[in-house]
Amino acid sequence: MAGVCPLALLAPGTGGAVAEVRAGRGMQARLFGMGFCPDARVTVRSADRGSIIVSVGDARYALSKGAAMKILVRCNGEAAS
Question: Where is the Ferrous iron transporter FeoA-like domain (predicted)?
Answer without folding.
Answer: 5-75
